[in-house]
Design a protein that fits this description.
By secondary structure, the protein is an all-alpha fold. It contains eight helices and no strands.
């Protein structure tokens, strides 16, 4: 699935504007990638369109995942309230799940903290 199509999916799932849908997708990709090991981040990025591959590969791995809350990271990066951040995160996650293989989605889930996984699942 291409980048524009993914943005349209986020827009469909959320009702956000094209611009906000793109920002949400890019932010979610970055935050998720930062929670993965380097090897897993590369596997994740390999299944994304080029525009998101770069974002995923440029994310620095968080060393202490226990302190990283995926929702709060989106709030901070997007400078929005928690309700809006959750809607962005969930719509983007659905678009990513439509794009990335089920095996990769499972691998990502396995690397998330229980708190972060609970938000997405």
């Amino acid at each position: 699935m291409g980048f524009r199509e993914m943005i349209k999916k986020v827009q469909h799932y959320s009702g956000f504007s094209d611009k906000e849908s793109q920002a949400a997708l890019e932010c979610t990709t970055h935050v998720l990638a930062s929670l993965l090991t380097e090897e897993e981040r590369e596997d994740f990025a390999s299944q994304l369109p080029p525009e998101l591959q770069e974002i995923a590969l440029d994310a620095e791995t968080v060393t202490d995942k226990s302190e990283k809350d995926i929702l709060q990271e989106v709030v901070k990066r997007q400078q929005i309230d928690q309700g809006r951040a959750k809607k962005q995160l969930l719509a983007s996650w659905r678009a990513l799940k439509d794009t990335v293989s089920p095996g990769e989605i499972s691998d990502i889930r396995d690397q998330l903290t229980k708190t972060s996984a609970a938000i997405l699942y």
